[in-house]
Design a protein that fits this description.
By secondary structure, this protein is mainly alpha-helical. Helix content is about 45%, strand content about 10%.
Length: about 120
């Protein structure tokens, strides 16, 4: 699931959900990535704990649990309204004949094209 949407559903609700799910998934992934670094260790997560590690760890648990619940709720709305679970905009990147052969950026914007698939 990406952060781009084709808007095929012709629905503001579907558009909102198709954009919010990846946003929520990214927040969950960022918290999980932060937690595995060991930078936010906490001996005990309790209310009123002022240690920065504990505050951040508690915040990440809240984000993971809350955002995952909201993702499931949004998927349920899409299903109930009979909308597709995803509406990602697929973009194919290809070189136009004579375009650059190396990985360095070309000075000519005409040498590359983006085509919607």
């Amino acid at each position: 699931v990406g952060m781009t949407t084709n808007v095929h559903m012709n629905s503001p609700v579907a558009l909102f959900i198709h954009q919010m799910i990846p946003h929520h998934q990214n927040a969950v992934n960022m918290c999980k990535a932060l937690m595995v670094t060991g930078e936010i260790e906490c001996s005990g997560i309790g209310e009123g704990e002022e240690d920065i590690g504990c505050i951040m760890r508690r915040l990440c648990y809240e984000i993971i649990n809350g955002q995952n619940f909201q993702i499931q709720s949004m998927r349920g709305v899409l299903d109930a309204l009979d909308f597709e679970a995803e509406d990602d905009c697929k973009v194919k990147i290809s070189s136009i004949e004579g375009g650059p052969k190396s990985t360095k950026a070309s000075k000519s914007a005409k040498s590359w094209s983006l085509r919607k698939v």
